[in-house]
C-alpha cells in the first residue's frame, strides 16, 4: 500500500462510511428541528419545512412578522403574562406559527406548494390546519403533539396523510 493511499484512509476512515443514511423523513425532520432553533418564541420553538419531490420549497419558524419586535427582543410573552393556555386565543400573540411562516414564504416568493409535504416539529393548531388544507398540502409529518382537538378532527376529515415521526 502506498503512503498516499494510507494517508487517504486516515482522512476517510472506513467506519465513517458505516453510518446509515437517514431516511427522507429523518432528513427533513432534522432540518425542521434546526429551523426551530431560529424561533423567537419564549414558550415553544417550532420549525417547519415544506418539501415536494424531495426538494425543500420553504422553511418557517415561529416568530413575529418582518420588522416587528419579537418576544425574545422584548423579553416578555403576552400569552404567558395573561396565563393563556396552550391552543387557546392564538390572536393574543406577536408571532406567527412556523407552518404559517413556511406557507407565507411560499406566497411571498411565488413558490407552488400544492401537493407538498409539511415536516413540522409539532402538530399544527387549528389556524395552521385551515391554511394547510387550503394550500393543498397533502402530507404532514410531525414529531410532537399539540393539544387541539378541532385541528385533529379537521385534519382527519381533510384526508391529509398524517405521520407521527418516531425517529
TrEMBL record:
GO terms for biological process: pyrimidine nucleotide metabolic process. Belongs to the cytidine and deoxycytidylate deaminase family. GO terms for molecular function: dCMP deaminase activity; zinc ion binding. SUPFAM superfamilies: Cytidine deaminase-like. This is Deoxycytidylate deaminase. One of its GO terms (cellular component) is cytoplasm. Its cofactor is Zn(2+). The gene is comEB. Keywords: Hydrolase, Metal-binding, Zinc. PANTHER family: DEOXYCYTIDYLATE DEAMINASE, DEOXYCYTIDYLATE DEAMINASE-RELATED. It comes from Termititenax aidoneus. Pfam families: dCMP_cyt_deam_1. It comes from the Bacteria. Residues 23-167 form the CMP/dCMP-type deaminase domain. CDD domains: deoxycytidylate_deaminase (cd01286). The keyword GTP-binding does not apply. Zn(2+) binds at residues 97, 125, 128. Transmembrane segments: none annotated.
Amino acid at each position: 500500500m502506498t503512503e498516499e493511499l494510507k494517508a487517504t484512509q486516515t482522512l476517510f476512515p472506513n467506519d465513517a462510511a458505516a453510518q446509515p443514511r437517514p431516511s427522507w423523513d429523518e432528513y427533513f425532520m432534522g432540518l425542521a428541528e434546526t429551523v426551530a432553533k431560529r424561533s423567537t418564541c419564549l414558550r415553544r420553538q417550532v420549525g417547519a419545512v415544506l418539501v415536494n419531490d424531495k426538494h425543500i420549497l420553504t422553511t418557517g419558524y415561529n416568530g413575529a412578522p418582518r420588522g416587528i419586535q419579537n418576544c425574545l427582543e422584548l423579553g416578555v410573552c403576552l400569552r404567558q403574562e395573561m396565563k393563556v393556555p396552550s391552543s387557546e386565543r392564538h390572536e393574543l400573540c406577536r408571532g406567527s406559527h412556523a407552518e404559517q411562516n413556511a406557507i407565507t414564504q411560499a406566497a411571498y416568493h411565488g413558490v407552488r406548494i400544492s401537493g407538498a409535504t409539511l415536516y413540522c416539529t409539532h402538530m399544527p393548531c387549528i389556524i395552521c390546519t385551515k391554511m394547510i388544507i387550503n394550500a393543498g398540502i397533502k402530507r404532514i409529518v410531525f414529531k410532537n403533539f399539540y393539544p387541539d382537538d378541532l385541528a385533529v378532527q379537521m385534519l382527519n376529515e381533510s384526508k391529509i396523510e398524517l405521520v407521527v415521526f418516531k425517529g
